[in-house]
Amino acid sequence: MRHHLLIIDPQNDFCDLPPAALPVSGANADLQRLAQLISRHGEQLDGITVTLDSHHRYDIAHPAFWRGPNGESPLHNPISLEDVDSGRWLPADPSLLAEVRAYLQQSSLYVWPPHCLVGSWGHNIQQNLNEALQQWECQRQRVMQLLFKGLNPLTEHFSAFEADVPRADDPATGFDRSQLAPLLAADRVLIGGEALSHCVASSVRSLLRHLGPDFARKLILLEDCSSPVPGFEAQAQDFVAEISRLGARLQRSTTVFD
């Protein structure tokens, strides 16, 4: 039986460690447990895919992209089409007004603190997990698959596999089935990472939307290796219930290979 491990956004900025930009309670321990799983059962893992949230400081979901009437920037703010049309929030680059309006007609938007900036400490994989991944590559004499998402500053990218609003001028923002060959070849896909309520949920929903609901029967959510954003526990519970109804299983990392 072939096992593939899918790790969503296991990065410092999501760990409950200083100076993380968007700490998720329990995330550091989640990723330590993933590291232990890889160290103990690396021979049984035929492949590993790691997705990396990857942003510029200037990004549609970061403060620098927006300006208020007095030159202020939003933070932890939803922005709606009504906000833009009223002038409450406008793109700092006025030439993007029409594009922003079109975006907000298709998707909601929330402005987060700048996080997972490429080249920064926050973009790096959590240390214990990174060490385990490097050891696995040497042990199995193969490389993990790294998927970068979020580099286009004009669209939000919660899912690892497609942007919230894919752009016709950037294929990297659309769903690319060719990236999924290792997952499709596996008998079981183990899933962990951050955050359960947001990027994990969005990524799995993308897979099921494009690959079909039967793909859920391959999935094992490592329930001790993923945590929700504080305040979004209900959304995480809804996601877990949703995939469970489709046949996905929940297991702890300490028992998945028993």
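Next protein, fold it too.
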Amino acid sequence: MAHSFIPADPATLHPDSLLVHGGTTRSPYGETAEALYLTQGFVYDSAEACEARFKGEDPGFVYSRYGNPTTAMFETRMALLEGAEAARATASGMAAVQSALLCQLRAGDHIVAGRALFGSCRWILEDFLPRFNVTTTLVDGADLDAWRAAVQPNTKLFFLESPTNPTLDLVDIAAVAEIAHAAGARLVVDNVFATPLLQKPMQLGADIVVYSATKHIDGQGRCLGGVVLASEKFVTDHLQTYLRQTGPSISPFNAWVMLKGLETLSLRVERQQQSAARLADTLADFAKVEKVVYPFRPDHPQVELARRQMKGGGTLVTFVVEGGKAGAFRFANALRLIRISNNLGDAKSLLTHPATTTHQRFTPEARAEMGISDGLVRLSVGLEDAGDLLADIEQALAKV
């Protein structure tokens, strides 16, 4: 019989301890590392026991698409870290987003969402959901009056990310949550840029939080994964059945990798954030950099909000290289240590040109509306020495 290693009172433990021990269950062998249960199904002692398990009268696992011991450990650890009642893991971050949205929406429903979103999130809202008569009003996330004005009688959901991808704009989560709840709607927050260590949307009033675990949670470029965190009631009433019937489940192996990633999440994010802040301050002094955006810099237009709802500025820096697309490409191609990629939150520093990658499907006008210029680049700061990263950036800027 496996036995739990969940602390009797997780509230007494620091997040660093939860990241190592939270949610662990051990088999009779008493293994140190979490066990990896690579199984599709489970067997029963009798037909009666199998029937009881499927009816929910006997707790336990029935099929790894519905739940798995390794996946459950990852979900429990994430819930403890986030301060949520429940969590469900998915195959990717976008699987988490679409599951969190679709499990609760019906034809005729309406969504209010911040305009600045990851490209795939915008596709779900603007292209996919309208096929099923679910409409969306996009607003300037910083404009609280715009959120209020967008509410309709059939509004069921508010959706935002903060900081936004890739412009690092902030949305006042507590204020938007208040507006959503006054309208009888739920608020879903994509918290991937801030990580669960630097921002707690549920403490600010969010009902549901989603992550791409592919990013900081794995943090080493190995596996895809996602997580939805919410109340037990929401999971029971909406999410669990949706996941069970549609199947966007995470692989137990990927869940195990995410568990290992969580053990070092605090160390990695702290180091990456320190380097990101240093790079942002130094970049601001470079002649060929037209603009630097970092949430905790004094020149960020929402720095007060950032400091109020975040514990740190995060691991990403956005800046504009002079010369538009040509200048940004010359800069990117001249980098030697920093690599070009569309991923983020990795141990390796990665540079993205959003206008031609994550947001390339949008018209130039739409990108301009989101603040994405042709010279804008997004730097996900890794674990390399900050001085080496600065030297690489400086020599690359010299080529612009």
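About the second fold: The mean pLDDT is 95.
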